[in-house]
Design a protein that fits this description.
Hypothetical protein af1432; globular; mainly alpha; 0% strand
């Protein structure tokens, strides 16, 4: 039996009209493809220690952001690799699932390549957040919360030194924002929490709620969806995105049972 959540309220409008490259996943590797070619084309090329150090050395703004909590620019590569293997990969799968379950009229407004890359890279800035904050067993205090919140801005500043698309950069920077502009980092009056951003935000939140972390136990799918539904009622998430998330969760649950 699928999860039943009350019908979402109508909120907000979806405005973006972004071209979708439907050939994104049709690229094959011949027998002569080598590791170097893969590393140059894979999204993982942005997550190596060498690439991250190059990003940091290229952009002085990064050192300014972390000067009060990580002046030595220590990199938590082990934590980043664990994040990419688990939370980031899970967020990537959920984002794809949401996109696949949207009404046909909205699917054309989704940039599949952008949400795939942003879902995987959205937390890359956490490589510069001290381990004692990332894995604190208790609640973060005000200063620790402020430091943690820099991770999205750090990810943006790191990746903007690369050839990453501008839309992906925007999604990484603002994945904790919403149409009500109550998230972080601060945004201007012209900010638009478009369809792609809301997909990333919902995917990130669902993944975080349902996974075990050092400071919390995992929530059940129904518990997580109930919390996210509150965002719909407050106008922070479009109801069609929420419905697509519910459908994805139901389909995934059924496939595991069968």
């Amino acid at each position: 039996m699928g999860l039943e959540i009350a019908r979402a309220l109508g909120v907000g409008a979806i405005q973006p009209n972004i071209y979708v490259n439907r050939n994104r996943y049709n690229t094959g590797f011949g027998q002569n493809a080598n590791v170097d070619t893969f590393e140059r084309t894979s999204i993982d090329r942005y997550t190596t220690e060498t690439a991250i150090k190059k990003m940091i050395n290229t952009n002085p703004q990064i050192k300014k952001i972390v000067k009060n909590f990580n002046p030595e620019m220590q990199l938590n590569i082990l934590e980043l690799n664990n994040l990419l293997k688990n939370h980031a990969s899970d967020t990537r799968t959920i984002a794809k699932g949401i996109a696949e379950n949207l009404p046909f009229s909205l699917k054309s407004k989704v940039n599949l390549k952008a949400i795939d890359e942003a879902a995987y890279l959205h937390d890359i800035g956490k490589v510069l957040i001290p381990e004692n904050i990332l894995n604190k067993s208790g609640k973060l205090d005000e200063l620790e919360t402020k430091i943690m919140h820099t991770h999205s801005e750090l990810g943006y500043e790191m990746l903007k030194t690369t050839d990453i698309d501008a839309l992906v950069l925007n999604l990484v920077r603002n994945h904790h924002q919403n149409p009500k502009k109550t998230g972080y980092p601060r945004v201007g009056n012209d900010f638009n929490a478009d369809l792609n951003l809301q997909i990333i935000s919902a995917s990130d939140k669902y993944s975080a709620l349902t996974e075990k972390r050092v400071y919390k136990d995992p929530l059940s799918p129904k518990q997580a969806l109930t919390i996210i539904y509150q965002d719909v009622k407050e106008g922070k998430l479009h109801p069609f995105i929420f419905k697509a998330l519910v459908n994805h969760v139901n389909n995934n649950t059924l496939s595991k049972v069968s």
